[in-house]
Amino acid sequence: MKQAVRVLLSVFVAFSCLLLGTEGHGRMMSPVGRSSRWRYDSSAPTNYDDTGLYCGGFWKQTENGGLCGLCGDDWSLEQPRPNELGGKYGAGVIVESYIATTTAEIVVEVTANHLGNFQFHLCDLDEFGSESDDCFNKYPLKFADGSLKQDINTTMGTIKSTVDLPSGVQCEHCVMRWTYTAGNNWGVCEDGTGAMGCGDQETFVNCADISILSSVKSLLYKPLQTVEVPVKEVIVEEVAVEVPLEVNETETS
């Protein structure tokens, strides 16, 4: 019986998603996400669909086994994906520096509410060298109440969140990642029943390049790096050169 309920609910979810379709509905504005940087920086490539970084869409993410690109792109795209470092929008430009602070205020703009929750993660590139799930998963960011998720209920427009920065982490280049897991799809819950918010949901992801520094001095002055330069031994041979003697005619006359 439970198996039959699961099948029916799955069909219902699929049919509902087909009817409703999907449009972009959110973006991280501070620190500004890579696809939205053009809104403040004219040198950045333009992405008018910067509210639509939802893993290629619900159907595509399902087709990819629930996987999503590190920064919201379709997982099946060739790497580096557009919003990852080295991709079209992933220039690595630092858009925000958090100096001598233990918290960060993050601003997200939600243009169409899907219920659900926000999560934030930090990837320290100084430590890991490159973006990866392991890098992001090492530093899940906690909210003021100690939780790792912020339910947004039916809130629309600008949503501000304050998160604690990881203790002891300082980086010239970190990546802040926002993940918005929607909760408006009807799906199968773990106990086999059906309910709104259960099962697979749309996922929106943005990445922003930031730094976390202990002081302004850290921003202005970087320590000198010692570079070993290999020295090639050069052997110079002594060469005897015969130099003609110049004679002063005045002295000899």
From TrEMBL:
Keywords from the UniProt entry: Signal
A Pfam family recorded for this sequence: LPMO_10
Record's keyword annotation contains Signal: yes
Domain Chitin-binding type-4: 25-210
Signal sequence residues: 1-24
Protein name from the UniProt record: Chitin-binding type-4 domain-containing protein
Gene name as annotated: Dwil\GK12183
